[in-house]
């Protein structure tokens, strides 16, 4: 652990004391989001020290020109970048005309940040002595409203401590911002108007190329000791900046407060020529309610979220804080109300990994959203891929595939591929399988079959067609093989017959054919529409089945395990534990060729297959594969430990399971990878949730019933979580030797507990 | 063939008629070089149409920042760029104050270019009507002096055709030039002084970062109908430009000539503060001799080159022109007098493939230079690698190798790696083997063993250490394997057990051990020095030998061939001839993943091994491998057809051999790859020479004797070439059914002809 400065607390993330060195890390950790917009924990007032500014608008991106060494056919022209949006939070502060800047203050005392996860707000307070020797006390509260999701609210309060002072607040908007992650230092925003009206201001700007039109807006109010002060602001304005200066004499001990509402209206949600009107409407609402009422509604909205998604852990504050931090950020990032959006790997906390959607969504995030939201949310995530099917077919065509074969992109914003390393873009094709698996998983969990005839089957057909064409017959093996792929373990590139990929390919074909029959029988009208649309024939599906039936799977008789890929046993099979600590992480210490020819596994690969298709294998098989592959796994992806944690728990190795859990749950809080200043690992946070619910709780869905095989780490007294299963909510509380189930609502429900059937009555707690 | 505008001619490259579309191609084809500097065939006078300006100074480069998608450990920080140097050829021409610019002339007639390869000069002539209706006749002769290799000479002559005219010549220097191939549009040159003195001018400039200091200089003289005109030039000068204007009234039919000498003095060859003095010295010499005498010495120098290196072909003008074009450009690029220089793949004809030295030098170029120059030239090429040994050891260290293991760079200027694609930089390690092979080949051909104890053995030890460390023991195969490589066939990346690489690795170790013994016995002092320097022990060499003895070679019983790599037979083995023509070249039509999983071979790979180690295999084995691999080879590298041509000839398939020969010899003249405007393929030109001498002529060195098994394509009446073998020169003339040998000098010599011994007497032609 590299970072111990965050205080352990059940519900809040707290930093005490001002340290310039942690500013950028804290900007990530204390980020706010409301699904529609996000904001790193940048200071409102000027800060001349090192900082990483980030304001983000969901779905607004910039297609940056790709940067490659040598161009290869099939590379995408651009790489969608999560875009730093115009700044709406800025408030310059002058005290007797001296600017407040924590980097230049002669002293900063009692500095404290709190991200209150329970209620969804962020507060910062400190006492500072300015270069002009005036001491002030400052307290700022900020939140991004869940009720009015185009608005954020700031309460910025100052008291002069030792003398009277003249205080100037200059709330401002700024569209002259830059992007840290730009490839070519291009300008991303074009500002078209800067306007002021009374206490409000507006900057209209659009992104270059993508032409997302935005109005960044603000409105402000001044209060002295709680009483509104009416001053006309002094307006100053530049090409990409507008500020409103409010100056007020403040007596020692009095408290001058600026309430600032600000945010964005965007052409994704409004007509482009009504953005200022829309901004006024939302500002009207905000001012009508006032900061306090909006703050109360924020607390209420978060209470509702926590009511369903909270996980409690007794006896381990750090573990408790970790899991809540993960659940909080998942909910800040994606609320599932807009099927055009998805879950970016950094959410609203940084720019890295341009593009919003990876296979992370299907493999790691969907279970969390299925179990803690109503099923529409997961359905929207599936619909997102259905809406991108045409683009996935075009993408496959670019690579030479035909007849409606679909290859979903490795990274995308709008369905087009945004990644451009051949070994990933062209070869990490298992992503296609995760998308099919999510369809299966969604139906398994929700019981909502309608998605398949309505949308899913066409996605499955495109995917099955891809696998059929991507495999080829090997005369030497007398089997179908899949050559030249990269598996989930990205420390192997361009390998042949990655077991996980081959297994998934076969499964996709089998599952698609099964759904074709099911839809044909049960949804004949949909079937006819789909048949017409896809021109699918039995001759074609027969050929698919031939490939699926004769797929090759590399296997070692000696070790009794499926091999990660052809040739895996040619490697020097030295277990990770024998590696010198100084050599790790290998992705920082070793050259790429050395990593590639080593046996070391970045993240679950064969074991990812055992995770998806657990019921296809015996416990003994799992154990053998776990023992074999775990010994070579370096877990240098944030997505790795959770799968191993779930499997270790299943194998009743709770110490190991707990170690993996800790690594995933406090990855960012403890900054394991020394990179948290770049942003948080949002999608892996869903893996943490899985570690508890599926790993420790042993949650599965078997034959349309929830099934639990709970275990508890010896470090914990108890833990609890809730599952929304087909609109029935069940709370599970696990302690050593006892599991309690409590069903909400009115209907009975039967579940399995350690393999046995258990009947639950509404609102009655059962101890098992 | 895409380009038919070059006239067939035995000794010259000729273009007739002015076509704006061919300007850039011709700028490449008519390039001049003298080993120390080079110049694309850019016009001296202004040209406002599309052009690719290029003036190059041998050994002067710029370390451009690398451009990559995602950084990987071990990547080099920079990529050495062949640098466009300040322009010394420029001569602005005004006719009655109207600038001459062929792009804007109302007519251009009788336009003709000739590159006279026999005598080493380039002439351009035309009649043009300027926008001001004045018609002029122009004739320009240019050459880069072999005698004074810091100087180029231009004779620029104009006659007004229909009326008297005032003609102004403004010879100039310009250091405000740009580089087409720049990654980041950086400025490469910094100009420090611009000076004029009488008829001479100087610009001193140095390259950024590498700080090569240069003085670009010129001197001029004006002649009217052959009589010197004395005018003081009008000097004009800017920050990076200086011009001298000479204005003269010229009567209709009179001929006004500007003689311009210009070029570079460089801190690589002179003290940095004496560059202007050095320029004056070489200008003094040039003006003392005068254009005509220098021109005569040029013809003499080229006659000497051709005397030794010419290949004649009777009955096939295009083939004759092709081979001379290749020999001419090889000699323009590298003369072997400076061991700091090497043979860049584009020579002095373009910027692409930054860096000068590839394994092309060792694998393709050394045989040409060994046989057509004295042995010092090849020795200098070997010394170049010896001088870079420390850098190669550092390079290997960066990738995790230890104890003096050396990995030579894929591309280099000064010994440091300049390439940055992991699959090439880190994995195309067979280059190390070619460097060892060249040492073997040099000794085999020249009989000069001294290089090995003096320098070569240390190179071999570094290379053997690398192979020993790069191989690992496979428990599964019970053999040593080499994982994760790219062979010469770059259409495969990160494969296991590339046969060529494994074979070369084993051979390198065996050969090194053999040389160790030989040096120990024959050169004990060198042996002690080397042992001290390398800390080599018998324990270490024993371990090498263990690896060499137990190296794994993939083999197919079914086909009776060594496999290009593990898993090759899993591919869909469809021969190239069954591919749709529209799919080719696959590197332009297919995505990279599709190329990788196809069986198609970019250039000789297994067959490259059969070329190097021909005597390790039977003719039957060669035939089997040739038939198997040729059917999958697409020859999309300029280095491919020559090896296949040599082997087809050996297999007595002369039609096939001739087809391959044509493809290699006129690659640039006929612009097969539609890219000649970017520059010529210099290193593959040496492969063309090999196709004739080793392929058709069947030249080998066996047991210290030259051996010939000549064949002739049915399209030719006869062909001849000369070989300088251990300071004895032998001319071989082959026609159908007859081969004539003529030995120069005074000593007898015995050779083998079709396996039989043949005695040659000096200056006596023997017919066999």
UniProtKB/TrEMBL annotation, chains A, B:
Glycoside hydrolase family 65 C-terminal domain residues: 699-760
Q: Which residues form the Glycoside hydrolase family 65 N-terminal domain?
A: 14-268
Name listed for the protein in its UniProt record: Glycoside hydrolase family 65 protein
Q: What broad taxonomic lineage does this protein's source fall under?
A: Bacteria, Pseudomonadati, Bacteroidota, Flavobacteriia, Flavobacteriales
Give the UniProt keywords, A-Z: Hydrolase
Q: Which family does it belong to?
A: Belongs to the glycosyl hydrolase 65 family.
Cited SUPFAM superfamilies: Galactose mutarotase-like, Six-hairpin glycosidases
Q: Which organism is it from?
A: Maribacter aquimaris
* UniProt keyword Hydrolase present: yes
A GO MF annotation of the entry reads: hydrolase activity
Looking at the record, the residues that make up the Glycoside hydrolase family 65 central catalytic domain are 324-690
Q: Which InterPro entries match?
A: 6-hairpin_glycosidase_sf (IPR008928), 6hp_glycosidase-like_sf (IPR012341), Gal_mutarotase_sf_dom (IPR011013), GH65_N (IPR037018), Glyco_hydro_65_C (IPR005194), Glyco_hydro_65_M (IPR005195), Glyco_hydro_65_N (IPR005196), Malt_Pase/Glycosyl_Hdrlase (IPR017045)
Domain of life per record: Bacteria
């Amino acid at each position: 652990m590299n970072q111990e400065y965050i205080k352990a607390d059940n519900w809040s993330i707290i930093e005490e004391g001002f340290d310039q060195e942690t500013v950028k890390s804290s900007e990530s950790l204390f980020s706010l989001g409301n699904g529609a917009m996000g904001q790193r924990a940048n200071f409102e007032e000027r800060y001349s020290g090192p900082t990483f500014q980030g304001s983000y608008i969901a779905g607004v991106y910039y297609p940056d020109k790709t940067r490659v060494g040598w161009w290869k056919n099939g590379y995408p022209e651009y790489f969608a970048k999560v875009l730093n949006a115009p700044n709406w939070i800025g408030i310059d502060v002058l005290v007797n005309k001296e600017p407040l800047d924590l980097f230049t203050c002669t002293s900063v005392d009692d500095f404290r940040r709190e991200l209150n996860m329970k209620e969804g707000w962020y507060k910062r307070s400190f006492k500072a002595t300015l270069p002009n020797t005036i001491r002030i006390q400052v307290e700022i509260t900020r939140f991004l409203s869940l009720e009015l999701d185009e608005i954020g609210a700031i309460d910025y309060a100052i008291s002069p401590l030792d003398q009277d002072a003249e205080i100037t607040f200059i709330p401002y908007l700024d569209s002259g911002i830059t992007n840290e992650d730009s490839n070519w230092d291009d300008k991303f925003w074009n500002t078209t108007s800067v306007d002021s009206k009374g206490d409000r201001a507006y900057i209209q700007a659009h992104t270059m190329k993508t032409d997302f039109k935005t109005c960044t807006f603000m409105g402000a109010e001044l209060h002295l000791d709680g009483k509104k002060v009416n001053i006309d602001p002094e307006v100053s304005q530049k090409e990409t900046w507008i500020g409103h200066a409010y100056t007020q004499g403040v007596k020692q001990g009095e408290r001058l407060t600026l309430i600032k509402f600000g945010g964005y209206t965007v052409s994704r949600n409004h007509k482009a020529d009504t953005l200022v009107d829309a901004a006024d409407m939302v500002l009207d609402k905000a001012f009508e309610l006032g900061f306090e009422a909006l703050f109360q509604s924020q607390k209420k909205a978060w209470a509702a979220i926590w009511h369903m998604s909270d996980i409690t852990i007794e006896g381990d504050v750090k573990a408790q804080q970790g899991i809540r931090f993960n659940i909080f950020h998942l909910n800040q990032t994606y609320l599932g109300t807009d099927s055009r959006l998805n879950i970016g790997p950094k959410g609203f906390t940084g720019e890295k990994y341009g593009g919003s959607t990876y296979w992370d969504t299907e493999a790691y995030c969907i279970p969390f959203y299925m179990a803690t939201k109503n099923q529409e949310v997961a359905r929207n995530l599936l619909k997102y891929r259905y809406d991108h099917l045409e683009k996935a077919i075009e993408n496959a065509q670019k690579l030479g595939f035909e007849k409606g074969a679909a290859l979903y992109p490795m990274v995308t914003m709008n369905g087009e591929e945004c990644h451009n390393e051949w070994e990933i873009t062209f070869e990490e094709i298992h992503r296609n399988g995760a998308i099919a698996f999510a369809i299966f998983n969604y139906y398994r969990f929700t019981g909502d079959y309608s998605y398949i005839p309505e949308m899913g089957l066409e996605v499955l057909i495109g995917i099955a067609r891809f696998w059929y064409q991507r495999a080829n017959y090997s005369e030497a093996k007398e089997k179908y093989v899949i050559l030249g792929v990269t598996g989930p373990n990205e420390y192997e590139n361009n390998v042949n017959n990655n077991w996980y990929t081959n297994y998934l390919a076969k499964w996709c074909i089998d599952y698609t054919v099964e759904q074709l029959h099911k839809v044909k029988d049960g949804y004949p009208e949909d079937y006819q529409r789909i048949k017409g649309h896809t021109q699918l024939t039995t001759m074609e599906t027969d050929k698919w089945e031939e490939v699926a039936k004769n797929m090759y799977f590399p296997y070692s008789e000696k070790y009794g395990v499926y091999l990660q890929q052809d040739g895996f046993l040619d490697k020097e099979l030295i277990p990770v534990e024998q590696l010198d600590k100084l050599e790790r992480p290998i992705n920082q210490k070793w050259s790429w060729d050395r990593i590639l020819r080593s046996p070391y596994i970045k993240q679950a690969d064969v074991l990812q297959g055992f995770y998806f298709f657990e019921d296809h294998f015996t416990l003994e098989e799992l154990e053998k594969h776990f023992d074999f592959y775990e010994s070579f796994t370096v877990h240098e992806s944030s997505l790795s430990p959770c799968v191993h944690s779930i499997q270790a728990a299943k194998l009743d190795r709770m110490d190991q399971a707990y170690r993996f859990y800790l690594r995933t749950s406090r990855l960012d809080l403890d900054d394991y990878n020394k990179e948290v200043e770049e942003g948080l690992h949002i999608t892996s946070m869903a893996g943490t949730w899985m570690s508890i619910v599926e790993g420790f709780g042993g949650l599965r869905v078997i034959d349309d019933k929830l099934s639990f095989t709970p275990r508890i780490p010896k470090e914990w007294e108890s833990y609890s979580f809730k599952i929304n299963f087909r609109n029935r909510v069940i709370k599970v509380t696990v302690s050593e030797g006892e599991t309690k189930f409590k069903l909400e609502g009115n209907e009975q429900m039967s579940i399995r507990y350690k393999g046995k059937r258990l009947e639950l009555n509404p609102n009655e707690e059962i101890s098992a």
